[in-house]
Amino acid sequence: MKDIDDTKAPLLEHLIELRKRLLYSIVVLAILFFSCLAFSKAIFAFLVQPLIAAGQGKIIYTDIFEAFFAEVKVALFASLMLGFPFFAIQMWKFVAPGLYAKEKRALLPFLLLTPFFFIGGAAFAYYVAMPWALHFLLSFQGDVGGIQREALPGVGNYLSFCTRFLFGFGVAFLTPILLMVLERAGIITLEQLTKSRRYAIVACAAVSAVLTPPDAVSMLLLLVPLYSLYELAIVAIRLTHWRRSRQANAAETEGSEEMDAGKNEGPETPPGGGRVGGSGPI
User: Fold this and answer.
1) How far apart, in whole angstroms, are the C-alpha atoms of residue 159 and residue 154?
2) What is the DSSP code string of 122-182?
3) Of 33-47, 102-116, 170-184, 195-209, which has the strongest mean pLDDT?
4) Cα 150 from chain centroid?
5) Cα–Cα distance measured from residue 51 to residue 214, given in angstroms and rounded to the nearest whole number
6) DSSP letter string, 203-236
7) What is the mean pLDDT of residues 170-180?
8) What is the mean pLDDT of residues 239-266?
9) Where are the beta strands (DSSP E) in 10-127?
10) Contact at 8 Å (CB) between 142 and 55?
11) 128, burial (CB in 10 Å: exposed 0-12, middle 13-18, buried 19+)
12) Contact status, residue 4 vs residue 100, Cβ threshold 8 Å
């Protein structure tokens, strides 16, 4: 893979490269989709485990096509989740030729960490956030003024709830990587991040309201870890600055020691032991 230092491709070549990467991604997505479609019932059975753990043993569908389309959505959702690392690699291969070598070295670690943070966010949503939210939302069942209120979630409704949680938390957990990339690119600074904590809380609340179902518990379940990740990004940026300053100081110290050593060395002894007349007797 060539750097921008080595080549400057015209616009048409960039468009051809973009088309190639998109075609690769579409082919892989199609293969994953049909593979996941064969296991859609098993995948859906995995997704409903938090609902069963919350005490709900029944899920319904009222539209005749709802169950079928739910399986299609499950297959598409699973194929997107499984193909995310491949799609990230294709995006990197398209962007990398337009970067300098030092920019590649700076951005590649963040790209490698992206799938792990995304999977970590989805796992947090599945094992922590969804059970809490479902316990709260299903607690409204029971007798209300002499009328029995019972929750009968629909297949499509629960699937939308589940995918919003998993994708929302997965994307939200990418916040530290995004902030570190922006700081490395010089778009934002550490001082701006530390002084903008109040605005960050408001932004996290807005993102939580968009990515989660419309209830306070779900919003708080995303708001708290999202802002915690913001603070984690600040700590990580401080550590990278500290490491860079240490490396710079070490390099400067080593350079000064080499200069001092060069000054302390005397001139070489001329032939003949330093005598003007040469090596023989005067």
Assistant:
1) 8
2) HHHIIIIIHHHHHHHHGGG-EEETTEEE----BHHHHHHHHHHHHHHHHHHTTHHHHHHHH
3) 33-47
4) 39
5) 18
6) HHHHHHHHHS-SSHHHHHHHHHHHHHHHHHHHHH
7) 84
8) 70
9) none
10) no
11) middle
12) yes
